[in-house]
Structures are given as structure tokens and as C-alpha cells.
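Extended Data, record VOC family protein
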Amino acid sequence: MTAMDLSIYNCFLPHDDHEASLAFYRDTLGFELRNDVEYGGLHWLTIGPVGQPGTSIVLHPPAADPGVTDDERRVISEMMAKGTYASINLATPDLDGTFEKLQAGDADIVQEPTDQPWGVRDCALRDPAGNMIRIFEVN
């Protein structure tokens, strides 16, 4: 079997306040807004790192899915509030410099830069919806 030519195009993270999420990803992380689709008062935001047009994050209202029951909506809301529903890993060549900027931007820091026993160096924070963001140092 030959290798497939695949790349990551987009991933989905939930949000419960599109304005707070946009401000965080745009103003704190420096991502650009690529699309803002509104339907019935709900917003689907497509954002991504500047200079990487082929990779995006779609911030979506998780309760808008018609296949989700009321009980599931309640569980999703509870998990988002605890920060256990969704996560994403990002990378930077300068973890300390990135972390300093995050601290200056009042990010919800979970873990300062740490050398992990499995060989990576990373930090962690949460976005306004409670999503866990880990940032790894890569060279």
C-alpha cells in the first residue's frame, strides 16, 4: 500500500460565546478570522494562523447539532465548564516568548512551560469556552 497524501484541513472546537472566542483567538493568539457564519443567532467562526491558509479551526456552537439530545447538551455544557470537553495542541519554536505574551494577555494559564517526562516541553491554557490548549515547543 502506498502512503496517502493527507494534511489537516480543519478541526472543530466548541464555543459558547462567539465574541469572547473571537477576541481570544484573534487578539491573544494572533489568529485571523476567515469566516463568520451566523444562523439563528448562533455563530460558526473559522479562524487560523496567519500565513497558514490551509489549516483552520472552526469554532462552533455544540448545542446547535440537531442530533444532540437535551441530556447530551447538558453534559456537553457541564464538560465545557470543567474544561474536559475538547482540546487542541499547537506548536511554537519559542515557548518561553509565547508564554510571556500569553501571560501579558491575561490568558487562563493551566500550566507554565514544563519539561515533560516523555520528552516534550509545553505549557497549557484554556480558551473562553474551557477548551484545553497545549502549546509544544518544536524546533
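Summary. The radius of gyration is 16 Å.
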